[in-house]
Amino acid sequence: MYRVAICDDEPDVCTVLAEILDRASGLPKLEITTYYEGETLCETVRRGMPFDLYILDIELPCINGVEVGQKLRNELGQEYAQLLYISGKERYAMQLFDLRPLNFLTKPFSDEKVVECVKLAVSLAERAAPFFEFKHKKQLYRVPYGEIRYFESRNKNVVIHTAGEDLIMSGQLGEINTETGLPENFMQVHQSFIINYEYVQRVGYQQMRLDDGTEIPISFPYRKKVQERIMKLTADRRDHRR
């Protein structure tokens, strides 16, 4: 399911955009949610319900679309989401440069151009780094694998340690499939830890050190497999550089 947020203070514009996407061909199934001001949208994301694509009007009340984009990028961890801006005034285009928008459409926009932009956003998402998805207390979380340092089993939950914050997932570490469900740079090194090798700074016989100073133990049953996995990753990357 590809999740789209439409935020415009004109309800008719939100309705038109939703209808354009509903009847468009060549798109995956979309889950479309509309907002009429930026604060509510940001609060939804802050509660752990992010979107894949944000279609944002610039002239919004209270906080404008540029400020919404800044919050999404700089405060709410939406580095991989796409931002599509719409406005009746072209003068805002240069203000959006640092936010890496997908596009900037001026009103009135054509159905074809909107669909073209959304198709591009979907295509980019399919090629981008995948996400680890999980639910906790009825909220859906999507965390880019590249931001996860390690998973830790703790008190009948799994703590997901990311580059920015720690997140809680209900369940057990064994429910995370380390063979097919995670990228190859993830490996289980202990019954309580699955690490992302991209963040490993030093590897010893009994433990490894991550780039933030965290020491992760390597328990005996996993040592041989960890060594083999590291050797394979090292060899694969060496071959790739040739």
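That was protein one. Protein two is written in the same sequence-then-structure order:
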Amino acid sequence: MYYVKKTMEISAAHRLTLDYESKCTQLHGHNWLITVYCKSAELNANGMVVDFTIIKQMIKDHLDHQVLNDVLPCNPTAENIAHWICEQIPHCYKVEVQESRGNVAIYEK
């Protein structure tokens, strides 16, 4: 089995829809640290699981400097962001989303 891991930082804002009072229902931003894990039993024709550039482009083009509520089809919690990213990237099986120091959500297939 071959594995790749790509970590990158993006800046993005969000506001959460919650069933309790929280300051997080107000628009606010984070410098998010996102780690994507991919695996495959075989390499593609280029000798890769997935090109790191494809991972970077997908994350940066869709999420960086965005209001996540405007670009994601879900309530943009760290958990939902991790799940959405995992579904977008070929061979992805796990995503970690850190919205602030000490606050990390992980989605794994």
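The two ends are 16 Å apart (CA to CA). Keep this in mind for the problem set.
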